[in-house]
Amino acid sequence: MTRQFYFILLFSILISLGIGVGIGGRLVPQEGMPIRVVANYLHAVLQADRTFYTQHVVERMEDMLIVTATENWREERTLPLPAQFFKEASRGLQVAGKPFRYRLMGLWPLNPENAPHNDRERKALEQVVEYGEVTEQEIQIDNQSYYQAIFPDRAVSRACVNCHNAHKESPKRDFKLNDVMGGLEILIPLK
Question: Full-prediction pTM beyond 0.85?
Answer without folding.
Answer: no
